[in-house]
From TrEMBL:
The chain crosses the membrane at residues 52-76, 97-115, 121-147, 179-200, 206-228, 279-301, 317-338, 350-372, 384-404, 416-437, 533-550. InterPro entries: EmrB-like, MFS, MFS_dom, MFS_trans_sf. The keyword Isomerase does not apply. It comes from the Bacteria. Its main location: membrane. It is a multi-pass membrane protein. This is MFS transporter, DHA2 family, multidrug resistance protein. It comes from Terriglobus roseus. NCBIfam families: efflux_EmrB (TIGR00711). Keywords: Cell membrane, Membrane, Transmembrane, Transmembrane helix, Transport. One of its GO terms (cellular component) is plasma membrane. GO terms for molecular function: transmembrane transporter activity.
């Protein structure tokens, strides 16, 4: 059945084209799975508990897992000292977790289809909690790294599982608000992680950054067991395969695991080891390239892929993933650059730098539910995404206009504007990603989406770190070349600096040159930071045309799906 009249709010606008018009029948009253039919036209599964209870329970586990991606950052010096390791060796505590996370994210959908989504989520929470406790009691650095790998493997599937659970638990008109709750968790956890980790480490012990997961994990496991149920389409698929031999895509699993692990190592350790000046990085990059190309070729044509890359043939999903990759590359690059800028060039301590960027997280907590409400009222997701990208671009470019004379409050606002833009886009992207995909592929889609988001962060940090160092050297070389005896302004600066220093003429001359050279280094660094902020603002601006290529999902009012004209 179809609405006989067009809703007055649905009129043509710049985003629409005739190819995007979608006709969807009235959602059936009985919950059943129709293969190949988009989620939007299928009824939500029968559930005993209110879906908001389900959302609260599963989001709690995700918040705990995402928090652990950043909570150990500030504790590395304490971990290294406690376990008699070098600072360089202690960074494997972070790298090992990220590598394990990258491996499990894309295959979480396949695991859910084999053992059930509820079972997979429950096992992930329990094992994550167990290995968090193991990290806390680790006697050596080697043991801690092993437990971090197991912790990352256990928790990596939580993010995509939550997105798939929310997509199935909520009807279309409420899915935007549900994704808003999830978005608040994944955006606020990385902001709170370093602050909470530093406070725990300073007041107690670094081991407690892992122990705090235990009570949260236990509660999450208990409530997950009580409230979560698998959707009908997943239950039906498991029943149909019951008694049949489970087909494991061993080749695809091996290629994906090796490729992602090697890529994460290259991105995380490349700058520290001088990229391709290091034999280790060179060979790891070669292995990553071969494995990823092989994985793509294999997964596209094998009958039962462990990662269903064929989902990228659906244009909304493809462009959503591309937009998220660019956004999180720019976001994490800025998150890396801004605190360093404040500490290295402006002399702020770590606590002050952290407090300067933290208000952005509070703004997000207030903004995201409002965006979810707009989605539930039928707002066009593409307009919100476009507004978000423009806002995020403006905030990032604003950072490039800062200088060394600005006050602390002037550093807060560009970050707030940037993160406001992110909040505008995350909920609509997470919502429309599922609209044109078959219901039985929601777990696979969520896994790929989460992987793209995490890899965007790794790429952003790696690129910003590398470009910052190299552009600083370029600017320093250029500025230093202009300080010579033939440049009267340069000589005047040296003489002014020398006059402010006591001692004989030779000492004053050397001291003056040293002071001028210090200014050259400072200005070179400032120019390099400005270049990076501009670069990532341009990256964000390039994402805007992709919004025009997104299909408009059918508008939901109550239970009726209206034509998207």
């Amino acid at each position: 059945m179809q609405s006989s009249t067009q809703d007055p709010e649905i009129e043509s606008h710049p985003f629409e084209d005739a190819a995007d018009r979608a006709e969807a029948p009235l959602a059936p009253s009985a919950a059943r799975f129709e293969p190949g039919v988009p989620l939007e036209t299928q009824a939500p599964p029968v559930r005993v508990f209110n879906p908001w209870i389900i959302a609260l329970v599963v989001t709690m586990g995700t918040f705990m897992e995402v928090l652990d991606t950043s909570i150990a950052n500030v504790a590395l010096p304490h971990i290294a000292g406690s376990l008699s390791a070098s600072q360089d060796e202690s960074t494997w505590v972070l790298t090992s977790y990220l590598v394990a996370n990258a491996i499990i994210l894309p295959i979480s959908g396949w695991i859910s289809s084999v053992i059930g989504r509820k079972n997979f989520y429950l096992i992930s929470v329990v094992m994550f909690t167990v290995f968090s406790a193991a990290c806390g009691i680790a006697p050596t650095l080697g043991a801690l790294v092993v437990f971090r790998v197991l912790q990352g493997l256990s928790g990596g599937g939580l993010q995509p599982s939550v997105q798939a659970i929310l997509a199935d638990a909520f009807p279309g008109e409420k899915r935007g608000m549900a994704m808003a709750v999830y978005t608040v968790a994944i955006l606020c956890a990385p902001v709170l992680g370093p602050t909470l980790g530093g406070w725990i480490t300073d007041n107690y012990s670094w081991r407690w950054i892992f122990y705090i997961n235990i009570p949260v994990g236990v509660l999450c496991a208990i409530f997950t067991r009580m409230v979560l149920v698998d959707p009908p389409h997943l239950t039906a698929a498991r029943k149909a395969n019951k008694g049949k031999k489970i087909r494991i895509d061993g080749t695809g699993l091996a290629l994906v695991s090796i490729g992602l692990a090697a890529t994460e190592i290259v991105l995380d350790r490349g700058q520290e080891l001088d990229w391709f000046g290091s034999t280790f990085i060179t060979w790891t990059a070669i292995v990553a390239g071969i494995a990823i190309v092989g994985a793509i070729a294999w997964e596209l044509y094998t009958p039962n892929p462990v990662v269903n890359l064929r989902l990228l043939k659906e244009r909304n999903f493809l462009f959503c993933c591309t937009i998220v990759l660019g956004m999180y590359t720019a976001l994490y690059a800025s998150t890396f650059l801004l605190p360093q800028y404040m500490q290295e060039l402006m002399g702020y301590d770590a606590t002050t730098a952290g407090l300067a960027v933290s208000p952005a997280g509070l703004v997000t907590m207030l903004e995201v539910p409002f965006v979810g409400w707009l989605m539930s009222r039928g707002s066009d997701a593409r307009r919100l995404i476009a507004m978000g990208i423009i806002t995020m671009t403006a905030g990032t470019y604003w950072c490039s206009l800062l200088n060394l004379s600005v006050g602390e409050h002037s550093l807060v606002w560009p970050r707030i504007v940037q993160v406001m833009g992110l909040g505008m886009t995350t909920v609509p992207l997470s919502t429309i990603m599922f609209r044109f995909l078959p219901a039985d592929q929601s777990s696979n889609a969520a896994g790929i989406y989460a992987l793209v988001r995490n890899e965007g962060g790794s790429i952003g940090i790696a690129l910003s770190s590398t470009f910052l160092q190299r552009t600083t050297q370029q600017h320093q070389t250029y500025l230093a070349a202009n300080i010579s005896a033939s440049n009267p302004l340069a000589m005047q600066a040296v003489q002014s600096a020398s006059a402010a220093v006591g001692g004989d003429a030779a000492d004053r001359s050397y001291a003056g040159l040293a002071m001028v050279y210090h200014q050259v280094q400072t200005q070179a660094s400032l120019l390099a930071y400005m270049d990076q902020f501009r670069l990532f603002a341009y990256v964000l601006a390039c994402l805007l045309p992709l919004v025009l290529l997104l299909k408009r999902p059918p508008k939901i009012i109550g239970k009726i799906t209206l034509d998207a004209h």
